[in-house]
Specification:
The chain is mainly α. It has 21 helices and no strands. The longest helix is centred in the C-terminal third of the chain and has 42 residues. The protein starts with 6 loop residues before the first helix and ends in a 6-residue tail after the last helix.
Amino acid sequence: MQPFLNPSLWELVQFRTTGRIRSLLSSFTHPRRLVISILGSVLAFVWLGNAIASVLFRESYDPKSFQIWMTAMLTIYAGWHLLRVSWQRPEAAIEWTPAEKMWLMTSPFRRSELLKFRLFTVLSATTIKAAIGAILLLPDLPIPWLGFLGLWTGLAMIELFRIVCDLVATGLNPDAYRSMRAFITVGGAALLSVLTINALELTRITQSTSELPTFIILMKSGMHVVKDWFTTTPGLIASAPMLVFVQLILTPTLTAATAIEVVTVLLMVTAMAGLVIRLDKWNVQQHVRREKDLRNFDELQRAESQSDDLNDWKLPATVFQQLGGAVTWRQFVGLQRHSTGILLALIPPAILSSIPLFMPQINDQIAIVNFLGGLTFYTFLLLPSAMKFDFRRDYDYLLLLKMLPQPAWKVVLSQIATPVLVTTGFQLAMIAIAALVRGMSPGLILASVLSFPVMNLAIYSWENLIFLIFPQRLKQEGIEVFLRTTVIFTAKGLAFACVFALMFGWAMLSGRIASQLADVHSTLGNQRIIFGVGVWISIALCGFILTKLAARQFEKLDASLG
């Protein structure tokens, strides 16, 4: 029987796994990474401890509600990949590192063998995700090993569906892709509009009889509306493929029907893997055909047909030279190429933060406070992962960046200037909308305009500092990436909680300082001014320190090891 993986590729997998384990262990002996590694281990221990405690002490969910929500989450996860490729066409369906292109593509391996190698590396991370998910859901799994199998096959199906979406999007001709984009975008926007309107209506009805904050009521209403939609006929049709895996997860006893369910889900995953292999062959043929057509163009037609031609882009003589010159301008060119994806990334924080502005049952002051809090939170949580127009998308160019005749601090500022400016522009636009809809005092507008830029500098300096300590490619797969992402996400949550606690403490302390200064002079006892100035100085200081640390890390980085 022919093995799934070529023996040479299987040996490569073993070597890479051993190397990654050694790399992780070596981070505890490397002086520059020791503190971050210890911090990451502590955060992972806290996260796992909390997860284990929740498993040991929580009650099991209602089986019917659990089935609906589990099916809904898997369906939404799969639908996100469909929406993603409709907004931003991937550059390549199957990502290969430069080393893989150099050594694997030129070796005597068939395309199908290389594709199996890639699928194996992708699904290895799925195994870890399924194992962690099964541990968290232990109280709800009648048969734990069967729940793990159902969860693994469900997540594997979604990963394979993601690759299918990428293959189809990159293989279609421009006209067909635009038609697909229009169909999916219109359908998604219509569904989101209906769910949002229903959630707002339910929030308006519920708020009159509830003492909970408006934001909490809105979140509960949104979850209720989503749950109800998945019980309707369109929702049942859309979630039918995922329901098969959820039913296997919740199987209470081992019967002949259980064996049939196991065979069914395995056949579904196998069929999807076979579809990936066939679509990859079709995708390669489409690319070859387009390359042949491109060779028939003359040089003028080719230059006009290539959307990524930089001949029409000229570096502005004043603004961008002050912001870092060609380094910053290069990131802005990349931003223009990915404009649709950036627009998609800005829509969720814009909608979620602006919802309080359009709820007439709450007064203007509370609406503005909720808006600013939501804008800060969603900017911190969602935008950094989308605005990767900095070091995080330049893994393969770190050596070239280090060779530039510029000091490290200037290169760092040039790299992070684009996401900071774009995020700041988005926030200022949202503040302008809030001022028009609800009205804002001049002092609050001034405080917001001054605070958000320094906050964005601190956020993106933090993101790039973490990347420079633990560099990785933009779409790198594997267990190490999954664990690293989990730890970093946990660190962000803890950092946000610490910032909130510090601001609460400073609010109490600024009141005492204001009362003491009021005894000296009445104009010095304004607590709001003292609080705002203190917060601004703290954020600006954090941004300066994080930028300095990122520049120092970039200066010490040995890019040749990548």
